[in-house]
Design a protein that fits this description.
Its cofactor is heme. Residues 257-266 have a biased composition (Basic and acidic residues). Heme binds at residue 449. InterPro entries: Cyt_P450, Cyt_P450_CS, Cyt_P450_E_grp-I, Cyt_P450_sf, Cytochrome_P450_Monoox. This protein has one domain (24-499): Cytochrome P450 (Cytochrome p450). The strands form 4 sheets. A 4-stranded mixed beta sheet has the order 1-2-7-4, with helices on both faces. Strands 3-11-8 form a 3-stranded antiparallel beta sheet. The chain is 55% helix and 9% strand. It is built from 20 helices and 11 strands. It is globular, with a radius of gyration of 25 Å. Bound molecules: protoporphyrin IX containing FE (HEM) and 2-acetamido-2-deoxy-beta-D-glucopyranose (2 copies). The site of one 2-acetamido-2-deoxy-beta-D-glucopyranose has 4 residues, from helix 12.
Length: 503
């Protein structure tokens, strides 16, 4: 045997032994925590990365293992560990301790830059201080006119499906309704009937999400240097151009308009119209902040606006879908919701005001119950940038942690033996159900959703418009789920509508 072959083999063996020792050391940190059987080096990659249907199966199985053992679970993607948990106390500690996210989130950064969802910890800390106060109740109240107009239009569209078979309500209607609504409120439009979502924008938006998901599912293209060589990357860049172009164009226009109104205000000495005062697009709020704070750059404003649009679009559309699905198979719940609407609106189909929203208590319980069982974002990730001792184990620095919202919502330990049953009444019982840290649809702790009030107001408005006029019929036993980052239905034709007979 030539000497070089000998030396090369020796080197290879050394490297393998070294890697193996490193791996052993990494794995020993999680000794005693349940995991799937491991292969050397690749860990569980072959078991857990597959299509969204498989990911869903694993998520559900891991949730049960965690519940049964009262313990977290660890998944190994090669040398990287992901610790999965939904224990309410641990979730509280983790989400309050860590604001850093693992590198998977950087897949969205071509599009969303340093917006709140994808920003690294330090950048997030700086920006959240400015943005935390932006989605106040009064800002959201200013959006009700748009919410009502969009809800009304959705009902008119759904009426065209009356008397027909089950249809794909998300892709045919809801996705568009929510994207249009969120764009109108995030970017601002002068007239409510004006549409800003073109087919080009809509397609680019959906394609971008799809490309991010495809990348997340394929470890081979996780490193940036490799991803940049793929056709997927080039397509992503093209789609992002379309999306950025829209936010940029609107932003320029708004800046100009703001300058103009300032001038005319100065000239008219506060004789401006009062009616324009209430609606304030998210973009306008950010541009005002940008005027007084140079650290909030135009680029950053655009990233925040794009982030809001992504954050609110599919989440709200899916919540509407799962709620319609539940209502359609629980006539008792749907009737009770209708009765509540009757008690508020009588026979009137007037727009819904903020007072009306606060009276829709049962409707809110319905939404909470939907989000508990079908969290549109079934899990979020955090990165441990230091050791964190918890009640039964310590999370070592460098661990990626998956907070399992799906598991939390279905935990019998927390919600009782009827955890898997859809029962909105549980939210209205004296004690309130579950416990803090177990309702995770909006995440929890320091990096939780900032759009909750917005989401609730929009969901209630749309559902009220729908249930006042229509009745849903569905068969959720055909519902098959998958996890494409978001929790999605595999096939969509599950819902039918009937015109409501006024009783
Ligand atoms: C039912 C609807 C919604 C659900 C279930 C939902 C869920 C979530 C979740 C789970 C997170 C945490 C993400 C993570 O840590 O990776 C989040 C963050 C966020 N959401 Fe929502 N969301 C909803 C609606 C909205 C809406 C309507 C908006 C905006 C109008 C919005 C804006 C955001 C933003 C900006 C963040 C990032 C917060 C931060 O990191 O500081 N969300 N949302
Ligand atoms: C950007 O948008 C403007 C106006 O909507 C359009 O005229 C222009 O062609 C767009 N540019 C790109 C690169 O898409
Ligand atoms: C719905 O859940 C939220 C927690 O996110 C809670 O504050 C609210 O009171 C719940 N609503 C009802 C009607 O129980």
């Amino acid at each position: 045997m030539p000497l070089w072959v000998y030396i090369a083999s020796l080197l290879v063996v050394c490297v393998c032994v070294y890697l193996w020792v490193l791996e052993r050391r990494a794995r020993s940190k999680f000794a005693g925590i349940p995991t799937y059987p491991l292969l050397p080096f690749i860990g569980n990659v072959h078991q857990v990365l597959g299509d969204g249907k498989q990911v869903f199966q694993h998520m559900d199985r891991i949730s049960r293992i965690c519940d049964d053992n009262m313990s977290p679970f660890v998944v190994w993607l090669g040398p990287c560990s992901i610790l999965v948990t939904h224990d309410p106390d641990d979730v509280k500690s983790i989400t309050n301790a860590f604001v850093e996210k693992p590198y998977y989130y950087s897949f969205g950064r071509i599009w969303l830059g340093d917006g709140l969802v994808t920003a690294p910890g330090v950048v997030w800390k700086h920006n959240i201080k400015k943005l935390a106060g932006t989605f106040t109740s009064s800002v959201v109240d200013g959006y009700l006119e748009i919410f009502n107009a969009q809800a009304h239009r959705l009902v008119e569209n759904l009426k065209t499906e009356v008397g027909k078979g089950p249809f794909d309500v998300i892709h045919k209607y809801l996705a568009y309704t929510t994207l249009e609504t969120i764009c109108q409120t995030a970017l601002g439009v002068s007239m409510i009937s004006e549409s800003i979502v073109t087919t080009e924008y809509y397609d680019a938006f959906n394609r971008c999400l799809e490309l991010i998901i495809m990348r997340a599912m394929n470890v081979l293209v996780h490193p940036d240097c490799i991803y940049r060589l793929t056709p997927a990357y080039r397509e992503m860049v093209k789609c992002v151009e379309v999306l950025h172009n829209v936010s940029d164009t609107v932003m320029k226009k708004r800046k100009q308009e703001q300058k103009d109104t300032k001038k005319s205000k100065a000239e008219n000495n506060n004789n401006g119209k009062a009616s324009a005062a209430k609606f304030k697009a998210f973009l306008d709020i950010l541009l005002e902040l940008h005027e007084t704070d140079a650290t909030l750059t135009e680029q950053q404003v655009r990233s925040e606006v794009d982030t809001i649009i992504v954050g609110g679009q599919e989440t709200v559309a899916s919540t509407l879908f799962y709620t319609m699905l539940m209502l359609g198979s629980k006539p008792r719940v749907q009737d009770k919701m209708y009765a509540e609407l009757r008690s508020i609106f009588g026979d009137s189909s007037s727009p819904i005001s903020k007072e009306d929203l606060s009276r829709m208590v049962y409707c809110e319980a319905i939404i909470n119950e939907t989000l508990r069982l079908y969290p549109p974002v079934p899990g979020v990730l955090r990165y441990a940038d230091r050791d964190l001792p918890l009640k039964s184990y310590t999370i070592p620095k460098g661990t990626a942690i998956a907070i399992n919202s799906w598991g939390a919502g279905r935990s019998e330990r927390v919600w009782g033996p009827d955890a898997k049953e859809y029962r909105p009444e549980r939210w209205l019982e004296d004690q309130g159900p579950g416990q803090p840290g177990a309702f995770l649809a909006f995440s929890y702790g320091r990096r939780a959703c900032i759009g909750k009030k917005y989401a609730m107001a929009l969901l209630k408005t749309v559902l009220a418009h729908c249930v006042r006029e229509l009745e849903f019929v569905s068969d959720p036993s055909n519902l098959e789920l998958k996890v494409d980052i978001a929790l999605r239905a595999v096939a969509g034709n599950l819902i039918q509508v009937k015109l409501r007979e006024r009783k």
